[in-house]
Amino acid sequence: xxxxxxxxxxxxxxxxxxxxxxxxxxxxxxxxxxxxxxxxxxxxxxxxxxxxxxxxxxxxxxxxxxxxxxxxxxxxxxxxxxxxxxxxxxxxxxxxxxxxxxxxxxxxxxxxxxxxxxxxxxxxxxxxxxxxxxxxxxxxxxxxxxxxxxxxxxxxxxxxxxxxxxxxxxxxxxxxxxxxxxxxxxxxxxxxxxxxxxxxxxxxxxxxxxxxxxxxxxxxxxxxxxxxxxxxxxxxxxxxxxxxxxxxxxxxxxxxxxxxxxxxxxxxxxxxxxxxxxxxxxxxxxxxxxxxxxxxxxxxxxxxxxxxxxxxxxxxxxxxxxxxxxxxxxxxxxxxxxxxxxxxxxxxxxxxxxxxxxxxx
Length: 361
Prior knowledge:
Elements: E1 19-22, H1 23-26, E2 28-30, E3 40-47, E4 50-55, E5 60-61, E6 64-68, E7 77-79, E8 82-85, E9 89-93, H2 100-108, H3 126-130, E10 133-136, H4 139-177, E11 199-203, E12 208-212, E13 221-228, E14 231-236, E15 245-249, E16 258-260, E17 265-266, E18 270-275, H5 281-289, H6 307-312, E19 314-318, H7 321-359
Helix pairs in contact: 4-7
């Protein structure tokens, strides 16, 4: 019995079978080129990770799809207008009986690592890509699918931009709520029934007690987060500390402090802290985020920090815990809005992923 090429989910006005082809039959693949000789301009230069710079010449003008040749091979990007691609990124052109936007959705649905040709850095060749089988309907159905998925992409872009604007807003608020280097008081202060007392400069040893993470190999699986410098590593059955804490990288990612307000365990590349002297824990975390921790790096190789170095860092803090809590509440409110948008982005991306799986053969 002949196999029928039709998607699981389809617009009701279409019922014709899709055609099986190879990528090499529906488009041509162009190679990126070196960009070092280009001057500065307004034309985007793309690598496999996205925009690298802007130049004064273009390699192609029109709708295209960027496909990673080396490195990030599983993140095709839709390109439009004038652009340049470097030699780690292929671009597509000369589309035959396929709309560029529809082809892009096909490419998003391909498991590119299945076609990886290297044991080290992931790599693809033109020949391999051209032989990949794909399925296409008539142009009217392509257009309807492409328009529908483009609307979903636009929603993701709008949410992403909204998140970026909120992150910029948070950055501006933080700059006003905390003193500039060398100053004792911030630009913006809260009012109470009476004016809050002045801020005072303190070393971190009067704000936080620094403790070392411990080995975790003996721990069983559970529900307690085991944290490393990159975040949650796994969930275990015991905890090292059960109060709100600021976590600071001891080795590796030393410039990304974390805050946690539930029982946890940390590995030995991560300090965990106890908050001292009536300091609001989340305020202490915000305070640490204002420190350029890489400035205090003590190693020429993998970045490292010592407890003694951290203890010596000085920062201005409000004498009033009430003022600290107001600052914390303000930033937490912005964080909640950012997290809500991030959740919507993830939901929309999951929705699109499901559509790609069902709307294509």
